[in-house]
Design goal:
The chain is mostly helical. It contains 21 helices and 6 strands.
C-alpha cells in the first residue's frame, strides 16, 4: 500500500491520504458504485410495494434485508466484479444493473432499472455522496476549526494588539476580537450549509416518465417518484430534462467556496501575525524549518491550507459554472466533471487539517505584541481628535494631523501635546488616561457576544 501511495498521481491519494482517506468512503469509485447500488435496490423494493404494479409482488422483510445487504456489504472485491462487467458493457451504470442480476433470481431481472435512464441513478447518487460527505466528514472538521477559533477569541479577548489598516498602524484592537470576526463569519456559513437541501430527479429518459406511463398508465408516477426521492433523503425536482439541472448542488458548492475564501483570509492574517512576531509557533521535536537556516519555524500549515483552499475553489468554481449548462436534454460533460467533486472537497478538507495543526501550535508572544503596540502612540490620534471635537475644537483633526501624520509619536510627545491643550480638566484627564493598550473600545465586550 505504501508503494501504491508513492505512485499515486493525485496528492490526495498519495502524500495526503492519511489526512483525507476517510473521504474515500463517500467519493471513491467504490463509493460511487455503492450509492448507485443503493438507489437501484431501494427502487426495486419501492416498485414492489407499489400496488398499481401487479406483476411484481412485495418483498418480505427478510427479502428486503437480503437485497439491502448488496449495498450495505459492498466492498473492493465487489467493486472489482462490477469493473469486470463494465469492461464488456463500457457503461458503468449498466454494469451495476448486470451485477444485481447476477445476485437475484431471473424473474426479477426485468424489474432492475425498470423504466429508468442512467441519470436517474447518477444524479441521486452524486447528490447523496456530496450530502453525506459534507455531513459526516467536512462539516464536523469545519466545526472543530470554528470551535477552536471561538476558544482563542475568548482566551485573548483582552489581549491588546496593534491593528493595521492599509498596512499602516491603526486604532488598536484585541487579538480575541480579530479571531471572533472569523468565528462569526464561519458560523454563518456553517448554518447555511447545514440547511441546504439537495434536489433529486427520477423521471426517466427525458423527464416525462414516458416508459413508465406506457407500461403502467394508472400508476401515479409523479407521486411515486416524489415519495422515492424523499425516502432516500433528497427533495424531488419534478420538472427537468433528462438531467437534474444541478442548481441545488451548485448552491452547496458555493457555500464551500465562501468558506474557503473566509479561511484564505484567515490564513493570510495568521501568516502576517507570525511574520510580525506577535504570534509564535511551538517547537516540534525533530522538525526542520529550513534545509539551510536552522533557526526557522515556517508557518507551513497556514501556507499549505491557503494552497489547498485555492485548488478547491478552482475546481468548485468550474463545477459551479459547468454543471448547470447542458446541451438540450443533456450531454456527458456533467458525468466526467461530477467525478471531481470529491477531489474539490478533499482539498478543502485537507486545508481544515492544516489549519487545525497550525492553530494547535500557535502561541501569543506577549512581549512582542505589547512592544509593537506601545511603539505606536500615534494611533491615539483618532481618540484625541475626537475628544477635542467634543470640547468644541473645530481644527482638532488638523492639529493631530500636523504632529502625527507620517511621524513617530511616542508617549513623551503625546503627554507634552496634551499638557499644552486648553480644554476642560475632565477632557484633559480622559486624554491623559489613554494608552495604546487601553484604547480598544468595546473589543472585549464584542467577543462576549459570540
Amino acid at each position: 500500500m505504501v508503494s501504491n501511495r508513492l505512485n499515486a498521481i493525485s496528492p490526495l491519494d498519495g502524500r495526503y491520504f492519511s489526512s483525507v482517506g476517510n473521504l474515500s468512503t463517500y467519493f471513491s469509485e467504490t463509493a460511487l458504485m455503492t450509492y448507485r447500488l443503493k438507489v437501484e435496490i431501494e427502487y426495486l423494493i419501492a416498485l414492489a410495494n407499489e400496488k398499481g404494479i401487479e406483476n411484481l409482488s412485495p418483498f418480505s422483510n427478510n427479502q428486503q434485508s437480503r437485497l439491502r445487504k448488496f449495498y450495505q456489504n459492498f466492498n473492493s472485491t465487489c467493486a472489482k466484479q462490477v469493473k469486470a462487467i463494465e469492461a464488456t458493457t463500457n457503461h458503468d451504470v449498466k454494469a451495476i444493473e448486470y451485477y444485481i442480476q447476477g445476485k437475484v433470481k431471473k424473474s426479477l431481472h426485468p424489474w432492475i432499472h425498470f423504466g429508468l435512464t442512467s441519470e436517474d441513478i447518477n444524479n441521486l447518487s452524486y447528490s447523496l455522496m456530496w450530502q453525506d460527505g459534507l455531513k459526516q466528514i467536512y462539516v464536523p472538521a469545519l466545526q472543530s476549526v470554528n470551535n477552536l477559533l471561538k476558544g482563542f477569541a475568548k482566551k485573548y479577548k483582552n489581549t491588546s494588539m496593534l491593528a493595521l489598516t492599509h498596512g499602516q498602524p491603526a486604532t488598536p484592537t484585541t487579538f480575541g476580537k480579530e479571531i471572533a470576526v472569523f468565528y462569526v463569519r464561519l458560523d454563518r456559513q456553517i448554518q447555511q450549509i447545514k440547511s441546504n437541501i439537495l434536489l433529486g430527479k427520477f423521471g426517466g429518459a427525458t423527464g416525462t416518465w414516458s416508459a413508465q406511463m406506457a407500461a403502467y398508465p394508472k400508476v401515479n408516477w409523479i407521486r411515486f417518484s416524489s415519495r422515492f426521492v424523499k425516502l432516500i433523503g433528497l427533495k424531488p425536482n419534478l420538472i427537468t430534462t433528462q438531467i437534474e439541472p444541478h442548481d441545488s448542488l451548485v448552491e452547496s458548492y458555493h457555500q464551500v467556496i465562501r468558506i474557503n475564501s473566509i479561511l484564505t483570509d484567515f490564513c493570510r492574517d495568521m501568516w502576517f501575525y507570525i511574520s510580525r512576531g506577535i504570534i509564535g509557533q511551538k517547537h516540534i521535536k525533530g522538525e526542520v524549518g529550513s534545509s539551510t537556516m536552522p533557526h526557522k519555524i515556517n508557518p507551513i500549515q497556514f501556507e499549505n491550507a491557503e494552497g489547498n483552499l485555492g485548488i478547491s475553489n478552482a475546481l468548485l468554481n468550474h463545477l459551479s459554472t459547468k454543471l448547470p449548462v447542458s446541451r438540450m436534454q443533456r450531454d456527458l460533460t456533467d458525468s466526467t466533471t461530477l467525478r471531481n467533486q470529491g477531489v474539490a472537497l478533499g482539498h478543502s478538507y485537507l486545508s481544515l487539517q492544516n489549519i487545525l495543526k497550525g492553530l494547535k501550535r500557535t502561541t501569543i508572544n506577549s512581549v512582542q505584541i505589547s512592544s509593537e503596540l506601545n511603539n505606536h502612540w500615534e494611533v491615539l490620534a483618532e481618540g484625541v481628535q475626537t475628544i477635542l471635537r467634543k470640547a468644541g475644537k473645530p481644527d482638532a483633526y488638523e492639529q493631530l494631523k500636523k504632529i502625527t501624520r507620517g511621524q513617530k509619536f511616542d508617549q513623551e510627545a503625546f503627554t507634552a501635546f496634551l499638557t499644552s491643550l486648553k480644554i476642560p480638566d475632565d477632557d484633559k484627564q480622559s486624554l491623559l488616561n489613554l494608552t495604546p493598550d487601553n484604547y480598544i473600545g468595546l473589543a472585549p465586550k464584542l467577543v462576549e457576544m459570540i
